[in-house]
Amino acid sequence: MKLGVIGGGAWGTALAQVAATGGRETLLWALEDEVVSSVNDRHENSAFLAGIPLSETILATSDLADLDSCDAWIVVTPAQHMRAVLERAPRGERPLVLCAKGIEERSGNLLHDVAHEVRPGCPIAVLSGPTFAHEVARGLPTAVTLACEDRALGEALRARINLVNFRTYCTDDVAGAEVGGAVKNVLAVACGVVEGKKLGQNARAALIARGFAEMVRFGLAMGGRRETLAGLSGLGDLVLTCNSTSSRNFSLGKAIGEGHAVADLLKDRRTVAEGAHTAPVLNRIAVERDIDMPIVGAVDELLGGEVQLDELLEKMLSRPPGDEED
Ligand SMILES: NC(=O)c1ccc[n+]([C@@H]2O[C@H](COP(=O)([O-])OP(=O)(O)OC[C@H]3O[C@@H](n4cnc5c(N)ncnc54)[C@H](O)[C@@H]3O)[C@@H](O)[C@H]2O)c1
Ligand SMILES: O=P(O)(O)OC[C@H](O)CO
To answer: In which residues is NADPH bound (predicted)?
Structure first.
């Protein structure tokens, strides 16, 4: 099986490395010519994953038409670009493994719904979990969720990508896996703010726990299952992302907490902090569907520049605490 990886950012590059390490013929599509030449000539992605040697068997291209030769595609563009890239990619039915973490802003749809709409007939799987690209690319032990409604296809895909150090756990709960990855990015921004503002470890733990309650409420409303949300793609990824400056979302929040202007932090970014794109749409859906998500709402307000941080913190801390199980 030849695998096509669509997206030459840090995560697409790391997943190409996983595929190549497993002996798969691997073609990496990247938007930037400099990424293509860096991977093909120097076996490194110096733009997005500098300093990590890549398998010499990974071939890169900037021509989407070349992906026609692949049996399955691993789709790793940022969430907001996935639709446009899949629309331009060659036709034909082949499994798509979606790896971005987000919700499409304009439609409010989870990414598997977007992919079904753009590529009807292509079987869809979702790969998510606690996975910093730089660790995966170095071959450090990692475990992920692979969600596919068609269990047999999920098993077949697992056989293609599983490695000793890239443990792949299957589920048929696609919505649950996607919601975990999308919501944790927004909560990581909040935890970064707590770090930047020096509010302490207790506050961060409280945010993780109450944020998880928000993730579960939203996930259940979207048709996901509680055990998926408590698994690798939900709680697992939440814990990773809310505790490390390796996370772009956490780092964004930390800089906001330190007093940097949101607009400056978001303009001219080369790397993606998906939480900034997910917060408005997630909050919009939560309000429309009457799902209680105060932390997500606060992050949305903060990123939208609608409120000053100190004012927001005062508002959050003076909310009357409810019952824990609510
Ligand atoms: N980096 C990680 O550790 C990691 C791990 C798991 C999941 N993810 C997810 O993978 C997705 C991709 O993130 P990343 O870290 O690989 O990206 P990145 O931040 O390393 O790089 C940015 C990417 O955006 C792409 N891009 C910019 N404009 C584009 C456009 N108009 N059309 C298509 N692509 C465009 C660039 O080509 C580049 O591939 C995100 O949804 C992210 O949440 C990342
Ligand atoms: O750098 P972040 O915040 O996009 O997080 C990367 C991965 O999603 C961690 O699992």
So the answer is: 11, 101, 133, 248, 272, 274
Q: Using CA atoms, how far apart are residues 215 and 178, in angstroms rounded to an integer?
A: 11
**Annotated binding residue 93:** no
> What's the pTM value of the predicted model, to 2 decimals?
0.98
DSSP code, position 65: G
Longest Cα–Cα distance in the chain? 59
The angle, 0 to 180 degrees and rounded to 10, between the axes of the packed helices 274-288 and 294-303 is: 130
Nearest to 255 by CA among 310, 300, 197: 197
ipTM above 0.90, yes or no: yes
SS (HEC) of 159-225: HHHCECCEEEEEECCHHHHHHHHHHHHHHHHHHHHHHHCCCCHHHHHHHHHHHHHHHHHHHHHCCCC
- Residue 98: which of 208, 7, 206, 216 has the closest Cα? 7
- Give the distance (Å) from ligand 2 centre to CA of residue 100: 10
Q: Which CATH number fits domain 175-317: 3.20.20.140, 1.20.1250.20, 1.10.1040.10, 1.10.3720.10?
A: 1.10.1040.10
Tell me the two tokens of residue 72.
Answer: 């399955």
Sorted by where each begins, the domain ranges of the chain are 2-172, 175-317
Q: List pLDDT tens digits, range 40-80.
A: 999 999 999 999 999 999 999 999 999 999 999 999 999 99
Helix axes 174-196, 294-303, angle to 10 degrees: 60
**Tokens standing for 120?**
């009807």
In the reported structure, the alpha carbon of residue 56 is separated from the centroid of ligand 1 by a whole-number distance in angstroms of 22
Residue 184: active-site member: yes
Phi, psi of 99 (to 5 degrees): -125, -5
Name the pLDDT band for 1 (thresholds 50, 70, 90). confident
For the stretch 268-323, pLDDT in tens is: 899 999 999 999 999 999 999 999 999 999 999 999 998 999 999 998 999 999 89
Q: Whose CA is nearest to atom 41 of ligand 1?
A: 100
